[in-house]
Amino acid sequence: MIIGRSFKCYISGTMIPKLTSAEIKELVQMFKGCSSDCLTLYYLLKNSVKTENTWPRVDVYVDSEDLAKVTSVVAIWYANDDRNGGAETYYFLYALDVAKLKAFLRGPCVLDLKKHSKVNFVLLKAAHDKSIRELLKKELCTTSQFYDSGYSYVLDNINESIINMATKTLPRDFKVGPLQRKHAGVLREVYTYGQPPPLSRFENTIKHQQHLAMFNQTGEPISWAVVKEYGEIGMTYTMPRYRRQGFASIVTSKLVQMVLDSNEIPLVAIAPSNEASQALHTKLGFQRRGEMWAIEYFIYNQDMTQRK
User: Among residues of the chain, what percentage have pLDDT more than 90?
Assistant: First the structure.
C-alpha cells in the first residue's frame, strides 16, 4: 500500500488518489517499454518528471493506492498554462475498466467544468471503444465534436532507410543542428494546427525537448521537426521554397536517431487523410500499430455547473 500522498478525493465513497511527484516517477518506470497504446502517457509523465512538474505541468490520478493494481490513469495536462484558469486542458486517459473511468470523470477533483471552456481528451487505450465515446458525451458535455486524429506509428529499431537518409549529402553550406530559443517565433508563425499556442510553449519545447532543423547558407531554419511534450514527433515543417528536396526526411531521420540513441521509441500520429506524412514515415520504416488513438473535443458553457 502506498502512503504519504499529498491529496485524496472521495467520490461516492471511492478514494481517488492524486499522485505525488515521487509516485509519478514510479509510474513512469512502470510504463517504460509499454505497448504503443500508452506511449504518449509515458512520454508526458516522463517529461514532467524531468522538469520537476513545471513543464509539462500535470496532475495525475489513479484508481488504486497500490500502483501495481492500477487499471485507470487520468493525467491532466495544462498545456498553455497561465495558472489563472486559462489553460487549454488535455486529459490523457488510460483505462482498462470503463466503470472506473466513469467514476474518475464524474469526480469534481478530476474534472472541474466551471474552470475550463476547452477540454481535449486523448484516449490511450481502447480509443475505438464506442462505449467510452458515448460515456464522455453523455456525462460531460452539452455540445461535442468527435474526430479521429490518426493512427500511431512507431519505429522499433534503426534501419537502412534511416541511415541512408540521415547521411545524405547536404547542399553546400547547409547544415543540420538544434533550434535555438530565438527560433520559437518562426515555429509559431507557421503553426498549421489551428490557433497557435502562446510563444512560451514553443520556447519550452526548444528548451526541454529533442529537436533538429535544417539551416541554409545564411543560418536560417528552413525545415524542422520536434519531439512534443507527449513524445510525438511533430511540428514538421519545410519552408515553401525548399520543399520537394527531401529536407524533411533528412531532419526526421536524424531526429529519429536521437530518440533511439536515448533508448526511447520514436512515435508519430498521422491522420488517415495525410498521405504525404504516411508516405514519409513508412518509407523510413515506421509501422502502424493497431489501435487508433483519438481526441474528444468538447465545448462547454462557461456557466455550466451541473452535468446532465
Answer: 44
Residue 221: count of CB within 10 angstroms of its CB: 21
What is the average pLDDT value for the chain, to the nearest integer? Answer: 79
Is residue 122 classed as helix, strand or coil in its secondary structure? strand
How far apart, in whole angstroms, are the C-alpha atoms of residue 268 and residue 79? 19
In the DSSP assignment, the letter for residue 187 is: H
- Show Cβ contacts of residue 69 under 8 Å, excluding neighbours closer than 6 positions: none
pLDDT of 298 over the 60 cut? no
Q: What is the pLDDT of residue 297?
A: 44
What confidence tens digit (pLDDT) does each residue in 102-161 have?
A: 776 666 556 554 444 455 666 665 555 666 666 666 655 544 455 555 678 899 899 999
Q: To 10 degrees, what angle do helices 98-106 and 130-140 make?
A: 20
Q: At what angle do helices 21-31 and 39-50 cross, to 10 degrees?
A: 140
Q: What is the DSSP string of 250-297?
A: HHHHHHHHHHHHTT---EEEE-TT-HHHHHHHHHTT-EEEEEEEEEEE
Looking at this protein, which amino acid is placed at residue 82? D
> What residues does 288 pair with on adjacent strands?
153
Report all structural domains of the chain as residue ranges with CATH numbers, in order of start.
Answer: 7-149+293-299 (3.40.630.30), 156-285 (3.40.630.30)
Q: What does the pLDDT average to over 224-243?
A: 95
Full strand arrangement of the beta sheet holding 118-123: 7-11, 14-18, 58-62, 72-78, 89-95, 118-123, 287-299, 143-154, 267-270
